[in-house]
Design a protein that fits this description.
homotetramer; 294 residues; alpha/beta; Rossmann fold; N-(1-d-carboxylethyl)-l-norvaline Dehydrogenase, domain 2; 3-stranded mixed beta sheet; elongated
């Protein structure tokens, strides 16, 4: 299939590469040139401007946030110049309000908006083992399903309203953040009583909490190893704020998210914007006066 | 082995039955007679008073809380009348302060205190698939290991100070409670945007959160089914308070535990003491004005 | 002085009337006609459009929020058509970001932006006993000081950067909200032990807490009387969000504000948008299962 | 009147001195000798043991906590040896559970328990300007009223059940702690935007928050001056825990108290047990990365 792909960060580049490997023709665009050239080496063509990536059947975007999407899609005049019948697959995590706004704007121009945010860190993206939650017009979703199959382990259908996939993604990321804080508090509790965080997490992550989230992050926390970041504190904070915003607009109090917001702010005030967001787990250690790299 | 066993609630009865099945001779005591008679039907002898259960090589206890242990062990004069060299295996979750106090009291009388709290709900206990965290004098631990193997899937060694196992158990139960709240908040968030709690949890518990805690409790939460209780709200609250107490004594702030405490109180104020503690997940729904059985 | 006045809600109308009584010539504009006509009866002239109110020496605004200011000042073309040298005195509570943006925009057109948010409920405004916190260009502030003296009990000078007054106002309103919650929690505590909220608050508001905030709101809380609203829940929530936003942009965690946010959301989810924000104090009663009008 | 007085800390000594000045005969006892000798210099007699102070018409106690009261009153055999008809006026802040227990124990021996906890720091006690909240048997209360009048500015009658005064005192102290945190958060917010804590608090404590609590503590916070302590962090924490305990036993969630508990723990983990509890206000500064003596 002819696919435009915009946004070649760690995640986007890995996904785009898998699409090429699956035999699709990609036309890529990125703000900085280097990642686009890496993909050109794999066979992609490079778009001269964002709008040039919107001429195929499908446009995929994997940009940092609402603002970046707005700048490229609206500011970059893509919407005006896209081919009619284009399917826009947004792989990124955006706000519910923006998902709705964009879906409506695109519908006016005959573009079909499919929300397809992904769960998984860069190494999972490289291994084409992402979990993709997808929602949008059923025909469009059916059309792009082979693409999602090529980048992920499994696709989860969530219906026709795009924001349904978006809210599930936000809820999932929120739950990951709660797991970080919970491990951080539990680790502080046992450490203060002479038991290592690793001793605790070894037991739990092989038993009741034997799930990827706890295993992957549990190791980082047990080793207090937060650099290099696979998912930066700043991005984690963005997603948490999107969850709080989505909850606020529907009048849903989320006290755990409120605690997390305060801890993100403290980590950022301490200059840890570029640490892996797993470093959130150090805030409880900090408050308890335990040794911490934060 | 000759084993005394005191405390035949849902958990204790299932564990004791498994010890009998493994070929051990049990002498059981319980406050109410019925469960003791059930075990007698499997071959146990019934102790006429608590102290009569402390004449074998090992005494196992599975009582509700510190007070129940104190009433039976101290009030029931077991400590005075136990056979010297007795190993006391405490399978229950008690406070760190009480674990220390009891270990010291028993040491004075030549009794070896082994903390061996277990992770698992009644059906897991019946299937002899508990996870046991154990700490105490290494010789005593080695001696009782076959017993622990008979009741559990795996035993986790945590060293010679009994309270090390206790704090790991408290930290683990605290983490389960955080998972309940996290699922409850995430469910409220998606429900307020028209997505079912079951839709969300189906995705997450098969992917990032594919762990027993999330699967077992996720189903209860998706179905809002909190009766009959496998683990009562009141017991969950007891364990949370023990975690807060252990944290407080070591000056460890636990903000998630603080939120949980407030939510437990609200659930209890609403008369839900006998619901499964998974019903904690309904508090966020309640605050958001969503339909809830709480 | 020739003063334009835009925004004649409960507060604005009372303030404008006091300016007329002090001998100033007012040209007023309001979205709905009735309040403007009330002031015309006192001697004000009515502007045919917002820009017509910007032809005097001073323009005062008292609009609901950032959006209303943006709609009228930017959308209403006031900035383009204002007389050069105009002093814009903003009496309302806006965001710090908007205060900065507006000050810069106006500076480009030779308008001097003075932030002068006020503390006090409508009856205080009527009595010309507001407390005004003011910041802006010193010459402009000096020029408008007689006006501020005419509407308030005292003016507090906070320097030349307008956002300094804004942040003090936001911090003050946040502190009022904490007082509401604190009284609500304390009332729930004593009520659950058989002591009336009024008994508690009578003691405290005549002793340690003998301050206007506690006296005024303490009475409403003791009587659980939240209608009619002097300051609506929705407006209180707006101000709290501005405080959280100002704090977030500077990486300041505010855990009390986080609790308040959750309680505002719950009150709004319960349909209490139009109650006086003192009704926040009912959330703790609600959680404790005590009788409450919320 | 013949008064026994036990507990001569900063508060007790000041109160006892005022009773002597009012013409009463005091027989004092204290764990350490020096303060008793200071009072002897004013005319008091010194009891050789606690029970010797219980031979008059009234026994007043001002001890640190439940444990100290238990040690002296029960351990010191006062209850057994007190004169029948004795009125025990407890000026200290104890737990509700202990107030009830003690009242019942004393009633069995013909002693009348009057709860009369006081609001005010040492300098207020010296000036005989305390606020006393009193509850107990009306005849006993009437009998001791002249004594309370001699040590305080005003006595607040709260009925015949002693714990009614106790819970009002706990609620009051909790509210003071919320004011400390609120000022701390507000100060962090404005400081992060370049406004001094003193600038903010000067405005607020002369206007909306013109109450003793805000004025006294506001000055300490503006100057970040927390030593010497008039009321130690450790004592403040004790009172907060009593409030949480009283709330918990009646199933009242207190989220502000939960935040305060976490902040007390952090301050104590940081080694600030002996700072004035006003230093709680530094925790928000700490989390925001602002300069702080904590």
């Amino acid at each position: 299939m002819e696919i435009g792909f915009i946004g070649l960060g760690q995640m986007g580049k890995a996904i785009a590469a898998n699409l090429i490997r699956a035999g699709h023709r990609l036309c890529v665009w990125n703000r900085s040139a280097a990642p686009a050239e890496e993909l050109a080496a794999l066979g992609a063509s490079i778009a001269s401007e964002p709008a040039a990536a919107a001429r195929g059947e499908v446009l995929m975007t994997m940009l940092a946030d609402d603002e970046a999407h707005r700048a490229v899609l609206v500011g970059g005049a893509i919407l005006e110049r896209a081919s009619r019948g284009l399917i826009h697959v947004n792989l990124a995590t955006v706000s519910i309000a923006f998902a709705r706004e964009l879906a409506a704007l695109e519908a006016q121009r005959g573009i079909s908006y499919v929300a397809a945010p992904v769960f998984g860190r860069p190494e999972v993206a490289q291994a084409a083992r992402l979990n993709v939650v997808v929602a949008g017009d059923p025909q469009a979703v059916a059309r792009v399903e082979p693409l999602l199959a090529a980048i992920g382990e499994r696709t989860w259908q969530l219906g026709s309203a795009p924001e349904r996939a978006t809210v599930v993604k936000l809820a999932g990321n929120f739950m990951i953040a709660t797991a970080l804080e919970a491990m951080g508090e539990a680790a502080a509790l046992v450490r203060a009583h002479g038991v290592g965080a690793g001793e605790l997490l070894e037991v739990l992550t092989q038993t009741l909490f034997a799930a990827p989230v706890y295993r992957i992050y549990g190791r980082l926390i047990a080793e207090q190893r937060y650099q290099p970041a696979a998912f930066r504190m700043a991005l984690g904070f963005k997603d948490l704020r999107l969850a709080l915003e989505a909850a606020g607009s529907a009048h849903v109090p989320l006290p755990f998210a409120s605690v997390l917001r305060d801890h993100f702010l403290e980590a950022i005030a301490a200059g840890r914007t570029d640490y892996d967001w797993a470093a959130l787990a150090e805030i409880p250690a900090r408050h308890a006066g335990l040794p911490t790299p934060l």
